[in-house]
Predict the structure.
Amino acid sequence: MASTSLRIALAQMMSDMNIDEICASAADKGAAVILFPEMFSNGYSRFDSESAVSRQAWIDAAVPLDGPYLDRFRQAARNNGLAVVATFLERGEAKPFNAAVLIDDSGEIVLHQRKRHICFFDVPEEACAPGEGSRVAKLKTKVGDVAIGIMICMDREFPDVASDLVRDGAEIILVPNSCPLMDDPTVGDVRVAGVRALAFQSAAGIAVANYPVPKDDGRSFAVDPLGKVLIMGGKQQELVTVDFDINEIRAVQKREWFRRVR
């Protein structure tokens, strides 16, 4: 019987690392998809809230959908035969967006997602505009079409985003992240607990890619559709891989169908 396992790589890397080399390494490890942390185009950098010049320079560094920054990810996807979730500060007319795209293994953008629940209360996202709506893309893989959705960092904490993805048929949800996952001095590991609960409530596999120390605390991880932790990385820079059994996800969704009534 043919395998229905889909391997996803979580690029727990700082943003000064070579994108092409990271993608090549993921492909060498047999990954079909690689997920980068949140706003990789600037490493989720901050600006000086007291300086208008610093704020404007941060905004001016936003990149377009059709520019050279995303072209590098698209070429890396083609060169290595894997899908890529690239993250970036996206240029906007009034304000920039915290955004991500899913690029298929032929280099085509098949999903464009903007963070909906931005951290409007703090630097740097007080300078951003929120996105509207979420949808799923059917990603062509060696195990067939797989329904992929994206939520960006704090989006995982709000039920409307998950409900939109569940209604659209999400089987795997990919989460670019930038915050402490296990070692938050105030809330500890509550974000991991929240993702586990979200997977169980949604009957979907979820993978989270975070920055390593010293920026965040690493611990990129993935959970199955019943909320069981499948893998968790350490604190340091590394490429974490996880295998999702697509048939098992679909079996859970069929058996636990009532969790997906929204």
User: Anything to note?
Assistant: DSSP finds six helices and twelve strands in the chain. The radius of gyration is 17 Å.
